[in-house]
Amino acid sequence: MAQVEFEGVRKVYDNGHVAVHNATISVEDGELVVLVGPSGCGKSTTLRMLAGLESITEGTLRIGGRVVNDVAPKDRDIAMVFQNYALYPHMTVFDNMAFGLKLRKYPKDEIKQRVHQAAEILGIEGVLDRKPKQLSGGQRQRVAVGRAIVRKPEVFLFDEPLSNLDAKLRVQMRTEISKLHRRLGATMVYVTHDQVEAMTMGNRIVVMRDGHIQQIDAPLRLYNHPVNKFVASFIGSPSMNFVTGTLVREGGFVFRTHGDAFQLSLLEEHWDRLREYEGKEVTLGIRPENMYVADRTTGPDHAAFVPVLLEVVEPMGNEIFIYARAGDFLLVARVVPQMLPDPGQSIRLALDLTKLHFFDAASEKTIAIPSV
Asked: Is the pLDDT of residue 27 over 50?
């Protein structure tokens, strides 16, 4: 396997559109790195440049220390798994998996050995003689992955490979790909728009927006220490709650929302980090799982209480999503199963003060990071 290095890579199309701005990413040997972001953020374009399917306008791309900017896709020693599987319908599973090796004139015995080895790893030995139309979606995806495995490439590339599967099968297949990564010790670059896939699969995650890299970090670092409001909103489901307000000093530091919907007396640990923002507008963020129904469950040691009007209650079985309004602000809380009043009634939410995030209102950059 090999290291992948993007160094100041840009992609500009003929019409002047800049799809990727100055991308600098290092994927270590044997690492699984996930590129994630909303549609149009440049993640698939970045992957296609790595595959050689898109030209690079500026910058340097290396695979295993070798500059590959002008190297043809077939000579880059990579294998790509696409969203639509791209299987030949008239060929059996065995022939689909063996096709690339046959083109490269591998001996028949070696082809057979590689195909059966990959089929064993993926649990599809029993379908090698079937055609793609006789397979389920999950089986077809395994065949597409198997076709990549038999190549034994330096780098595996995955372009939203699970997006055509149903929810239950997506969970199963992302687990299978994670196990495959550990078993092969392979270098993998994986593109998805699904932040849950990114969080559960990646050793590190590259968050992109409008062609710019926002943050590269381990999953829990992204979750606990986002560098800006966009990363904070994109990582985590349901998304982080955001409330605009002003920081004032009334004995201690107080965050007061616009419209006076509520105010929070902050902890001393926030004071030094927020001192320069006294009297200024900021955005407060708190995740749904860091909010509790007051007086119903054991809440955090350091809590502030906010009166809200219940709008929607969504029982999920092992948890409940609460949508509630405080003045002009809609808050989403993720709480343990419990009896709740009907929508239209008032309750109090307890906010964990040790889990607050603060963002500069103008730049949207993080200005106070929780100490967890």
From this structure: yes
Q: Are strands 320-326 and 303-315 parallel, antiparallel or unpaired?
A: antiparallel
Tell me the C-alpha distance between 116 and 181, whole Å: 18
Beta-carbon contacts of residue 301 (< 8 Å; ≥ 6 apart): none
Mean residue pLDDT across the chain:
91
Q: Across residues 44-57, what is the average pLDDT?
A: 96
- Residues with Cβ within 8 Å of 143's Cβ and at least 6 positions away in sequence, in order, are 85, 87, 93, 96, 97, 124, 127, 132, 135
pTM: 0.90
What is the rounded CA–CA span in Å between residue 309 and residue 314?
Answer: 15
Count of positions (residues) in the chain: 372
Question: Which of 6, 28, 10, 8 is closest to 202 using CA atoms?
Answer: 28
267-296 core/surface letters (b: 16 or more CB in 10 A; e: else)? eeebeebbeebeeeebbbbbbbebbbbbee
Please give the pLDDT value at position 1.
Answer: 61
Q: What are phi and psi of 52, to 5 degrees?
A: 90, 10
Least confident window among 78-87, 278-287, 328-337: 78-87
208 near 222, Cβ under 8 Å? no
The whole-angstrom separation of Cα 94 and Cα 303 is 60
Beta bridge partners of 358: 284, 368
Task: State how far the Cα of 91 lies from the Cα of 80, in Å rounded to an integer.
Answer: 19
